[in-house]
Write a structure and sequence with these properties.
Layout lengths: L3 E2 L25 E3 L7 E4 L2 E4 L8 H33 L4 H8 L3 H18 L30 H29 L2 H25 L6 H22 L6 E3 L12 E3 L5 E9 L5 E8 L5 E2 L5 E5 L2 E4 L1 E2 L8 E2 L4 E8 L13 E4 L6 E3 L1
Helix pairs in contact: 1-5, 4-6, 5-6
Length: 364
């Protein structure tokens, strides 16, 4: 489903809200983990304790994430510089001494300077298409792929299927963005390129952060994640709103078992049913992996709904409200959904909803 879906090997459904079984998930408090650190965690009485060695046992992946994270920062800086340049060109004039010096130049020199400026402007106005890290050397292009990637009989074939679908989606993104690029001013064009490249760099970080099991399944899950990210991006640049994503809830503490929703900006949101509470409710650990623009947490956007019956989660301290998750970082916070036994059917037919406006995703 666009913007999210169930991965191969996804975890089993949660126990009912009134279940007596109590499971402990260390995310009892709001915590953050930087993508480039990849610090492991262990359960303590207070929540998550971050260690010093990487969760991902591959030092190569840690270096790759560091490099990609730097690319995200560089793209953001480029966008900011482009906007600043626009303000300078539209709101400020060059110093009088500079103008005077230019005015005293010979006519041929002035023409040459104008020609050089025009050439530089033309060179900086080239659209930068998406180039896939898994298919480098040329812009993204439409490729054929089986209808069902998960149904392929080999891991490599599954990955390749997802990659082909991702590249096809990215080619469609380029077509939409290039049309907008052609209508934009020079400053806007620089911002378009910076935003696109920033999103592309962040995509790799976000997906690698979500899947760190260390086995061959990681490659499949990451490939599927790339497709989710590109599908969400394509919907965003086209201005289309996909239907509400229906995802599977889980009580597994393995992030690879989480069903993720991908926001239009490329952040990933998931949930884990951690334990029942004393009031007949459930404590949910919400997980955010922020995309290129970061993510600002608003607990009011995360609720339990069953038709007209709605429960707003009680924030468990420390409050995550207003926290800005940095691009590529993972952040967890917990909400206690109390008195679910009052829901129709005892809460068996509802789900946990992320609604930044209209409901975007529900986990059941």
């Amino acid at each position: 489903m666009p913007g999210g879906g169930t991965r191969p090997g996804a975890g089993a459904g949660r126990p009912g809200p009134g279940a007596a079984t109590v499971k402990f998930w260390p995310a009892r408090r709001a915590v953050a983990r930087e993508a480039v650190t990849l610090a492991p965690f262990r359960a303590t009485g207070a929540g998550l304790e971050l260690g010093g060695s990487g969760m991902d046992k591959s030092s190569g992946r840690r270096l790759a994430l560091t490099a990609v994270s730097a690319a995200v920062s560089a793209a953001a800086a480029l966008a900011a510089a482009a906007l600043l340049a626009g303000c300078t060109s539209s709101g400020q004039q060059p110093p009088a001494s500079t103008a005077t010096a230019a005015g005293t130049s010979a006519g041929t020199g002035t023409s040459a300077g104008t020609a050089s400026a025009s050439a530089a402007s033309s060179a900086s106005a080239a659209f930068v298409p998406i180039t896939e890290p898994f298919d480098p050397g040329h812009p993204a292009q439409p490729l054929s792929a089986p209808a069902s990637c998960a149904g392929q009989d080999a891991t490599l074939a599954i990955e390749q299927c997802y990659e082909h679908k991702t590249e096809t989606a990215d080619a469609a993104i380029d077509a939409v963005r290039q049309a907008a690029f052609a209508r934009a001013t020079g400053t806007q064009q620089a911002a378009v390129n910076a935003a696109d490249q920033g999103w592309l760099a962040a995509r790799a970080v976000v997906c690698a952060q979500a899947y760190q099991g260390g086995g061959t399944l990681d490659g499949v899950e990451i490939a599927a994640c790339l497709l989710d990210e590109s599908t969400a991006r394509l919907n965003a640049v086209k201005g289309s709103t996909p239907p509400e994503a229906v995802l599977k809830s889980t009580d597994s503490t393995r992030l690879g078992d989480v069903s993720w929703y991908t926001t239009p900006a490329g952040s990933r949101i998931g949930m884990i049913d951690t334990q029942g509470d004393a009031a007949g409710g459930v404590i949910i650990a919400w997980i955010v992996i922020a995309g290129a623009d970061g993510f600002v947490v608003n607990p009011a956007q995360f609720s339990y709904r069953d038709g007209a019956f709605t429960v707003a989660g009680k924030v468990m301290p420390p409050s995550p409200a207003g926290h800005r998750v940095k691009p590529g970082a993972e952040y967890q916070f917990s909400l206690d959904y109390q008195h679910l036994s009052a829901a129709p059917g005892g809460g068996a037919g509802g789900g946990w909803v992320y609604a930044p406006g209209a409901p975007a995703a529900v986990w059941r």
